[in-house]
């Protein structure tokens, strides 16, 4: 990966050559002040571009470095290595990217985060994954519950022009509808079960009240039973 690719050509000199912003002279002209501010913006842009291309654990390990050149040198020494090592690492990342599937229990946001982490790592090794490839990758590897939505997206949208954020928005809307539908089904099932219990309990209570309490008599001297008087035996 080149410095131009990482930061843009207008800021790459702050990465490759460790260019410094010249100090302002005393009593500068408006043009000199403008030039000074533009150079500061280029310097800061170089650092920002490098930071934005890093995944979290890499960023936290280099955030103490202040200049774009020092950040770039650290990343090169850490990730580039020999061409052969670089190629092996890149192939490994590509394989992980291609084989990564979304689990049924996973949400769209978490799956996308995994894909973008791999995409950022591949970028560090000089391989840029276009947005449409991420879009296609997600659509191919979504669980069955998204099948109808995927078909609708493929029919109505130009996948080459579709951004990742647009696709995620559509999928999350489907995800929310699916979750609400499941919650509604569970609520109906719960109410039906409880309704049956209350209904059964009501019938038992009614039967109990209709039959009334049983009257017990002293044991009969003849048959020893307690459901009648001795004189009636």
Automatic annotation (TrEMBL):
Superkingdom of source: Eukaryota
UniProt xrefs under Pfam families: Retrotran_gag_2 (PF14223)
Protein name in UniProt: CCHC-type domain-containing protein
Species the sequence originates in: Acer yangbiense
């Amino acid at each position: 990966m080149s410095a131009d690719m990482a930061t843009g050509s207008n800021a790459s000199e702050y990465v490759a050559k460790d260019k410094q912003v010249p100090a302002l002279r005393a009593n500068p002209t408006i043009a000199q002040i403008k030039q000074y501010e533009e150079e500061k913006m280029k310097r800061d842009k170089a650092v920002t571009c490098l930071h934005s291309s890093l995944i979290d654990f890499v960023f936290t390990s280099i955030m103490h470095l202040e200049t774009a050149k020092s950040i770039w040198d650290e990343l090169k020494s850490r990730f580039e290595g020999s061409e052969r090592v670089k190629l092996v690492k890149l192939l490994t990342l590509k394989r992980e990217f291609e084989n990564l599937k979304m689990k049924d229990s996973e949400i769209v946001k978490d799956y996308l985060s995994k894909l973008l982490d791999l995409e950022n790592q591949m970028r560090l090794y000089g391989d840029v994954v276009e947005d449409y490839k991420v879009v296609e990758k997600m659509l191919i590897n979504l669980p069955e519950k998204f099948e109808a939505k995927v078909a609708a997206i493929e029919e109505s949208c130009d996948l080459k022009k579709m951004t990742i954020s647009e696709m995620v928005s559509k999928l999350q809307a489907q995800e929310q509808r699916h979750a609400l539908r499941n919650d509604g089904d569970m609520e109906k099932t719960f109410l039906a079960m409880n309704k049956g219990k209350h209904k059964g309990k009501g019938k038992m209570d009614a039967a109990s009240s209709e039959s009334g309490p049983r009257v017990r008599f002293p044991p009969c001297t003849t048959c020893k039973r307690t459901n009648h008087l001795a004189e009636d035996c």
